[in-house]
Each structure stands twice: as structure tokens, then as C-alpha cells.
Amino acid sequence: MHPLIFITGTTSLGLLFALQEWMDSRMWNSHYKLSLLLQAWGAQYFIWGVLCWIVWWTLRSQIYNAGLKKMLLLFFPLSILVSVMEEAIWVLLFPRLPMGKPPMPFLQRLSFHLDAELIDSLVIFWSAFFLFRGIGYYLRYREKERIAQQLQSQLVYAQMRALRMQLNPHFLFNTMNSISSLMQTDIAAADLMLEQLSRLLRITLHRGDAQFIPLSDEMEFIEMYLAMQDRRFSGRVRQQMSVDPSVHDALVPTMILQPIVENAYAHGLSRLSANGLLSIEAVSHGPVLRLAVTNNGVGINPPAVKNGGGVGLSNVRERLLMHYGGEHTFSMLQIDGDRVQVVMTLPLRFAASPTEQTTGYGA
Fold first, then answer.
1. H-type helices in the chain, by residue range?
2. Alpha-carbon gap, residue 306 to 291, rounded angstroms
3. Domain 183-347 class, CATH top level
4. Are 347 and 287 in contact (CB under 8 A)?
5. How many Cα atoms are found within 13 Å in the side-chain-facing hemisphere of 204?
6. Average pLDDT of span 174-202
7. pTM to 2 decimals?
8. Mean pLDDT computed over 291-316
9. Residue 66: CB atoms within 10 Å
């Protein structure tokens, strides 16, 4: 509804009518000059464009919300007034029209044109009125849609933040429980675990509400977490990490691997007295990032494991669904008897700027 665009559009419509009348006149052997028709029709619709835009600009809220009563009491008299005003301006601009008639004074020419064109003028006014009204409906629909989308995004953000906050006390409780058990057997190891825990919490606080981080940052967190677990299990678990260098800056949801690794220790590796194995792999397959965590132990027969490992895995599933919808997969399978593998595939997306590699995991 910019005035330049609207008035240019109405004037262009008038020029098209002028061209149509000129072509009709040639078919009927009349001799109207194209330049005169262009001036007359162009000026008429230019005036209509200006007047209609002024009406919209001054009365747009009433146009958008007018009921039948207001249309009859306000806009119908206004339509007659605007039609008369438009004809008066146009008659002043073209004193030689109508052609083929003897010269007439202004009021007589105005009366002549009103008799011929008042109905057409009312049609133009009401066409503009309902056009503006339709624009009003469209704008309100778009505004409601925008507000609904904003509320939906705020709801999703709140849900994601709640899920993230759910992980922190869950992780903290389990880690403190591990430190407590170490206090009875190895005070030095418990002290070191407390120091490592403080580093992990510092990283968590530094991330704030970030929903996505580069894979390298996630792996740095996992490395420190695994160092704590290695201290707790006294070398009973062999840890392997393999990350394709090409996915170093791939974006992943924050703390997406830690609950899976924690689940591997809680329901598999903690039941072994020796020869535990934990493997973490990250590779790309075309447009897909594949993350896999494999561990040995007792398989997935125990109910706690079979049902998804409690808070951690259900949290991961919910966050993946909210982030990616149907664009991800999540599976937990038993392979080779006592080995369990959790595999996630995500859309491969990258950080805007590369990050420096500060972790020690290998390719």
C-alpha cells in the first residue's frame, strides 16, 4: 500500500482502458486521438488512485472493521462525495470534453459527466473499498500467523531449555554419587574427580542456553567425562574415539552424547569386572552425520536398558525429535551377543565459523 505503488497501479489501469477504447474506436471508424485518450483515462484513474489512497490512509481501521451499519451510514455517503469530487477535478482538467458537444459551463459539464459516469464511479469506489478490506483481512491473518509462530517457537525453546536443565541435575547427581563411592577407597581419585567435575560444570555454564554446538566442543566435554569415568573404573574399560576430521565443525545438539555414554556405563560397563570396551564414532555419509556409541556388558535384556535407560535416553530422543522432526534416526541394538550400539543420524550442518581443535581424540 505504498502510495507510489498504488497510484502507479491505478494510473496504469487507466492507460490500459484508454488503449482499449482507442482500438475499439478504430474498429468503428471513429477518429479519437490516442494521446487525448491516454491523457483523459490516465488522469481519471490517477485522481482515483490519489483519492482512494487518502481514504484508506485516513480511515483504514474503520474500513477493516466496518459493519453493515457503518457501510450504509458512513461509507455510502462518502462514496457519493468522492465520486463527485473526482468528476469535478477531472472536468476542470479537460474543459474540451465531451467532444462533439457545444461549449458548456463547468456545472453543466459536471452534471453531464455525473449522469453518464456516477454509477461507474461508485463501482470504482466500492471496488477499492473491498480491496482495502481484503488487504486488512490478509494483514490480520498474517499477524495472527506470525504471533502463533512466535508463540510456538517460544514454547519449543522453553521445552528445549527444560530438557537441557533436566540433564544437568541428572548428570550432577550421578557424578557426585561416583565421587562419594570413591571417597571410601581412593581419596586422591575422588579429589581429582571433583576437580574434573568443576571443569565440566564451568563448560556447561559457559554454553548458557546454546542449543547447538560444534561436534569438537561436544567431544571435548566427552573426553573430560571419560577421564572421570576412567578414574572411577580404574582402567577396567578401554575407551576408543574416532571422529572424521571433515565433521569437526558439524553442529550437534548440546550434550547429545553424554547421556548415551553415561547409559553405557550405568547399564553395561559397570557390570564388568574387566575387559570393558567403549567406542565412540562420528562420520559423515553424504548429507548425514552418523554418531555411534558401542559398549559391551550384559546386552539389552535387563528391563532398565530395554526400556531406554531412563531419563538420559528419553531426553535425547525428545530433543532429537524437537530439533529435527523426521530428519533423524535413533536406534539401540544388541550386536554380537553382549555388545550394545546406539546409533544416531542427523542432518549434516556446519558452524558459521570453524573452531580450533582443542581435544585429543583421533581420527
1. 3-27, 34-65, 68-70, 76-93, 106-182, 187-207, 215-233, 258-267, 303-306, 311-324
2. 20
3. alpha beta
4. yes
5. 21
6. 78
7. 0.53
8. 69
9. 18
Q: By C-alpha distance, which of 237, 246, 263 is closest to 316?
A: 263
DSSP summary character for residue 98: S
Q: Torsion angle, CA of 77/79/80/86, rounded to 10 degrees?
A: 140
Instruction: Pick the more confident residue, 225 or 308.
Output: 225
Task: Name which of 111, 110, 105, 117 is nearest 88 in CA terms.
Answer: 110
Bridge partners (DSSP) of residue 27 are none
Domain ranges of the chain: 3-149, 183-347
Q: Cα separation of 72 and 224, whole Å?
A: 76
Which residues contact residue 72 at a Cβ distance below 8 angstroms, ignoring those fewer than 6 apart?
none
Phi, psi angle pair for 88, to nearest 5°: -65, -45
Give residue 234's region: left, alpha or beta (phi > 0; psi -120 to 50).
left
Q: Decide: 112 and 98 in contact? Cβ < 8 Å.
A: yes
Per the listing, cell 470504482 goes with 124
CA 341 to CA 292: how far, in whole Å? 7
Predicted confidence band at 305 (pLDDT cuts at 50, 70, 90)? very low
Residues linked to residue 323 through DSSP beta bridges, in sequence order: none
Which cell goes with 63?
474500513
Phi, psi dihedrals of residue 361, rounded to the nearest 5°: -70, 155
- Alpha-carbon gap, residue 290 to 285, rounded angstroms: 7
